[in-house]
Amino acid sequence: MPPPRLGVNVDHVATLRQARRVAYPDPVAAAVLAELGGADQITLHVREDRRHVQERDLQILRRTASTRLNLEMATTPELVRIAHEQKPDVCTLVPERREELTTEGGLDAVGGREVVRRVVKTLRDAEIEVSLFIDPDLDQLRAAHRADAQAVEFHTGRYAEARLAADRRRELARLLDACKAAAKLGLRVAAGHGLSYQNVGAVAAIAEVEELNIGHAIVARAVLVGMERAVREMKELLREARP
Ligand code: PXP
User: Mutation test of ligand 1: which of 5, 72, 221 has the most ligand atoms closer than 8 Å to its C-beta?
Assistant: First the structure.
């Protein structure tokens, strides 16, 4: 069986850039390197407060990404307009609260069914595939199916954050049930959030999972595995300055 496709989320490259409001590191350059490394998709979240990814990043990535472009977005009129303009291959609808550190919990496809259905329709009418980022919960899954989404991405945060082995097992079982149910409904199944080099194995082993979207752990590791070379290059410049 082939492994799940990997979507690399480049948001946190932009987080590092925005910390200084400079031009580097560029998430577009990171996306090129991610694709060279084998990424099957580039994922990015244009947040309402633009805390990391900027619209310009999306515009450039739309023209340069050679794999698939997955835009994570809230169900707001502004983001729907941006999606219509930029036409990513897929839009993943996510909940968004200004004060949160990262996306906490899945979209409420049950409570927000009218808005979700409307946004799914307008995006699908523009021939953009739509995925809903939901908790591994059967009510949410049924609502996603009723809203006519083509895919779901299950929020793996509770699994990733579980400290006790028993909690982790319980969350994994929940995820497994939800993945099987989603596949039965004919939905494409993705998963993500909080996945790391330590915890990804059990989720990647779920046969129904076709795609994983991973950001923070990959960007964090890139900082470390690239540090030695970065320092060596700076030392070289210092040497060259005094021949
Ligand atoms: N998938 C979705 C829908 C997300 O919102 C996020 C976080 O932006 C991720 C995947 C990636 O999460 P992480 O950065 O924890 O790997």
Answer: 72
Q: How many CA atoms lie within 13 A of 232 on its CB side?
A: 5
Between the CA of 9 and the centroid of ligand 1 the distance, in Å, is 7
Just give the CATH number of 5-241: 3.20.20.70
> Full-prediction pTM beyond 0.90?
yes
Identify whether 193 is a catalytic site residue.
yes
Block mean pLDDT (10 aa), the chain, length 243: 96 97 97 97 96 97 98 97 98 84 85 97 98 97 98 98 97 98 98 97 98 98 96 96 92
Strands (E), 31-67: 41-45
User: How is the chain split into domains, by residue range?
Assistant: 5-241
